[in-house]
Structure formats: structure tokens, C-alpha cells
Write a structure and sequence with these properties.
Blueprint lengths: L1 H16 L9 H11 L5 E6 L5 H6 L5 E7 L2 H4 L6 E3 L12 E7 L9 H11 E12 L4 H6 L19 H10 L3 E8 L8 H10 L8 H4 L2 E7 L1
Amino acid sequence: MQTDTHYQQEREFWDKKGSGDYVSLSAHDQRRLLDWLGWTGHGRVLDLGGGSGMLSRLLMMVPGSECVCLDISHNMLKYCPVPAVQANALKLPFADSSFDLVVAAAFLHHIPGLEDKLMRECARVLVPGGRVVGYDPNAHCIQNQIFMNDTPFRLGVFSPDERPLRPDALSRFAMSASFSGFTFRTFSFRNECMTVFEFIQRYMLNPVSIGPLRKYLDRWFFWSASK
């Protein structure tokens, strides 16, 4: 089955990375993301595909937060600072209406073709009025089209199933799962390591990423929907 193959491939990929506390975002982007999440605390949060709990740490800084981190990689969850559950996100082991917020940070693009199923699971475990938020690679971005899709230039740093997502497609998945008020904004992360890609993004692409060009130059999009 597609879901079983996906689960096994992704688990093996991330288990190899689970040799330490895996932090994927710079301090600048962690602060920016926490601001965008707009979480005020006093509720339960599901950190979906949370790995070693980078986002869980940020959420727990907000008073009154109760956070559960779910991932398929046991090796990564060993470093998680909050209650952790190893499970398949397409079959969430939680009762209906268990969480006030579900955060799917850089996660949906790991399950191409199964996004609608995941959104239905998120809707099921959210309380009425709860939110699901996340961020994923923007499929309109020229860089992502070249380096993340099935082209000769696809980079080996991506996991087997990673593919960029179209914001309008994700909006349709959210609406079909009975979410409302889907919103998104495109952006690019600011990596601390000044690689060639980071130099080009920061000093050549970001300054001209305005107006109609932004859709094709911003590598990511942050999204949110309400139940």
C-alpha cells in the first residue's frame, strides 16, 4: 500500500538523522514562526511530525501550553522535551476533539497524494473552533520546481517523498476536510549558514521578491485554517 511504503521510507530516512537534537530553523526564523502561529497558550497542542521537538520547545514557552509531539522516527523523538508518541500521522492515535491547535510544520509536503487524508485526521482531533497551521515548500517557486521535483537536478538532501505544494491545492484539501478561513503567506527562511543558495536567496532574490514575482521566488508558504 502507498501509505505503508511512505511510512517505511520516511521513517528510515529520519531515523538516520536522529543522532542528536535536530534543529532545522535559525533563531531568527524560530522567533518569526512563533509570532505567526499566534498561540496564546491555555490549551493542548499537537506538534505533528515534530521530530526532536524544536517547535514543541517554542510552544511550551507560552504559559498554559500542553504539547504532544508525534513523529514516525523513534530516534528523533528520544530528544523531544514533551510527551512524545511514535505513530503514523495518517492514523492519529487520539480521540476526537483532543487538541486546540495542530501544528504541521514542514510536514504535509512529505505525503504527496495523501494531504486530504491528513487534513481530515487533523479536523477529527481538533476541538470546534480549533486551528491547524503549518508551513511547506511553495510549488510555484522556480527553485523548488528545479531542485525538489523529479528532475535531473533534484537534491539528495530531500527525503524520498518530499515534493513542493501549491497553496491553492492545500486550500482545497482544507475545505474538503470542513476547515474554513484558509489563509497563507509566502516567505523564505533565513538560514544561519551562508551557503551559495542562502547568499543568492538573501541578497539577490529576496530584494526583488515583491508583487507578482513573489509567488515564483519565495520558497515557502505559511498557512492556517480553522475548524
